[in-house]
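Page header: ASSEMBLY MODEL / two components / 486 residues total.
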Amino acid sequence: MRQAIEEIKFSKEELERYSRHLIIPEFNIEGQKKLKHARVLVVGTGGLGAPLLLYLTAAGVGTIGIVDFDIVDKSNLQRQVLFTTQDVGRPKVEAARERLNALNPHVHFEVFNTRLESSNALEIISQFDIVADGTDNFPTRYLVNDACVLAGKTNVFASIFRFEGQASVFNYQFPDGSRGPNYRDLFPVPPPPGLVPSCAEGGVIGVLPGILGSLQANEVIKVISGVGEPLAGRFFQFDAAEFKTRIFKISKDPDNPLTGNNPTQTELIDYEYFCGINLTHVTMETIESNGQLSVSALNDWIKSGKDFQLIDVREPYEYDIANLGGILIPKGEILKHLDEINREKDVVIHCRSGKRSQDVIDVLKQELGLKNLHNLKGGILAWADEIDTTMAKY
Amino acid sequence: MITIFIPTPLRRFAGEQAKVNVSAKNVAEAIRSLTSIHPSLIPYMYDEAELIRKHVRIYLGEDDIREKDGINTLLKEGDELSIIPAIAGGNF
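Prediction written out in full:
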């Protein structure tokens, strides 16, 4: 049973330990009680996780969850200041718990020596009030974001690369109950793999995660205590090379699959697949040079949660027989609905066999000069043959 | 003149410059001008359909151009554009 904030008491040792918080007028013992009452999950114990965990523990957050599946490696010690040389070879969560417990024995730790995945993320995240994302890869980043949105948790985010740092507070609940933007409002999709150097080539200045992780810890404490204005709906960029900081506004994306105007995603997806790990070369090559898209490629796009627009140019009575859930704009009416055709996303246009949709694409290319249009090869008939054999053919 | 701030991960494709000045009437023209000065940036800025990549956001001042007129957003003398790519650990 979780103790109510009003019932939280501090020992003499705790009062002395936290005295520098208690004498801040706007923080005081009420802020400290909120910290002790809070349950914060830190995902990843790496470069960002190290300062996050150290500062949240020192500050007196009551319960801290730690998720990581990794073992301490020598190459971690350049920035992951939670660990010592003696920890090399140990599970990170164990080494972290030992170190943090020595720092503050009043904090309760719940460790998850596992990889955060679609199968366990909601169960783990649901047990906490706030999540701090210290992950180092896109699949887990989108997983943490989506799980926080679905579970209704604030996600305190930071990310680093070489000399670049980014931070924000996603899915923050404002006093009126509304939620701030999330990671997908900023970056709907990750970069295609292979575009950029691999992790090992990338590298990072060791101090940079220390700076960004500390900013994250500060935002976590602000969100818990209600002191100050959290970095919600805003995005912080730090250029450590030039020492330039900038703050940008983040607006909500009406096409966000989780929180946009027409949400299409109500559960966690396969994030390795979404991020194109091991699969990109397949899906990339399935767009043929003449703009034709195979039904299996379309199926991959749907399964991966790819953000695209599907337009069906058949007649309403055909749509009623069988459809793929696309927006229905019959061929003859397409010129009246030009404003409904997305100019930025990939747009897949289909009909029954692929002929009418190709005609539509030819017209649109001529009228609007669009280059983001793909014809579904073989139309809904090919879909019924190859993907969904239960679908009616007509 | 329009100033385009180049984020650190993309600087090696832009002659190690932190900012590049261009003349342009709108955002699309500014980015085209940038990539013609530094063609190595092209694959990082544009996808196969020659659209700005979706993991790259462009800001005019502190506002996302999505909130304005997208790449057609008009620019005036002295405007500042920032390019913000998604980054994650060793990847960006």
